[in-house]
Amino acid sequence: MSSILDLVGNTPLVEIKHLNPNPNVKLFGKLEGQNIGGSVKDRPAANMIKKAMERGELKPGMKLVEATSGNTGIALAMIASALDIEIELIMPEHATAERIKTMQAYGAKVILTPSSASMEGAIDLAREKAATGEYLMLNQFGNEDNFMAHYHSTGPEIWKDTQGKVTHFVSAMGTTGTIMGVSKYLKEQNENIQIVGTQPTEGSRIPGIRRWPKEYLPTIFDPTRVDRIIDVSQEDATTMAKQLAKEESIFSGMSSGGAAIAALQLAREIEEGVIVFIVCDRGDRYLSSSLFEK
User: Fold this and answer.
1) What pLDDT, in 10s, does the model give residues 7-37?
2) Which of 26, 30, 41, 129 is catalytic?
3) From CA 275, how far away is CA 264, in angstroms rounded?
4) 204 catalytic, yes or no?
5) What's the pLDDT tens digit per position in 74-115?
6) Tryptophan synthase beta chain-like PALP domain: from which residue to which, for each copy (predicted)?
7) Taking the model in full, what pTM does it have?
8) At a CB cut-off of 8 Å and minimum separation 6, what does 277 contact?
9) In sequence order, what E strands does 69-205 have?
10) What is the distance of C-alpha 167 from the center of its chain?
């Protein structure tokens, strides 16, 4: 008999056949929307809470507080509900209704901050609450348990499912936990594997991908673990998310579209190889937005 935590991870790879421009390149999307909570963030959420409990940092009766753009909040709310832990989640008010309602369905208290303050405003409020001593802030942006979740699960899964043939790994960069953990694992297996991150172009707003101001750059981010960063525009990420759904039957959000754009660019540049990119969540989290409008 499985618990909710047992159902995190072991997501499938699916080959991209129609959009792949190079017959000598194998291109795969890792479908993280197949996690029990619907996104790649299930992995760090489960690991951060579990490790905080093991270390005694999260004491019985203590509340959690976290700033989130959406998927981490949903994952934390789900895990907290399973473990009977109270949680407050702080996010910018421009978050989609699906995200907010899903967190609330799991029993979380959701606090919305002004869109003008972006994620930085949500982070500041979470820090203020944590400073009172009534809450534990997991701080996904500076918590090693975030990227170690991917070191112990996502990375090994990719290595195993490609039979060690992966040559390039592509991920959107938000908290940077996914790319940090997968890079650490894959580079230990083969230092020649290329790790590629995506970030928005100046002025673009893509949920799940950030261009961080220097003072808010996640402290878990180590630039030496990323071989290349590709900028992606909001327009291109939106268009690609629609193409993934229509041409590859992969229903996902804009950040996945951004990762796919970078992966396709790589496929055009190299002679041969095996590219894996992260499809970080499901498209049904964006139905109230304009993402899939014609």
Assistant:
1) 999 999 999 999 999 999 999 999 999 999 9
2) 41
3) 9
4) no
5) 999 999 999 999 999 999 988 888 889 999 999 999 999 998
6) 5-281
7) 0.93
8) 27, 28, 29, 30, 169, 170, 171, 256, 259, 260, 262, 263
9) 87-92, 109-113, 135-137, 168-172, 194-200
10) 21
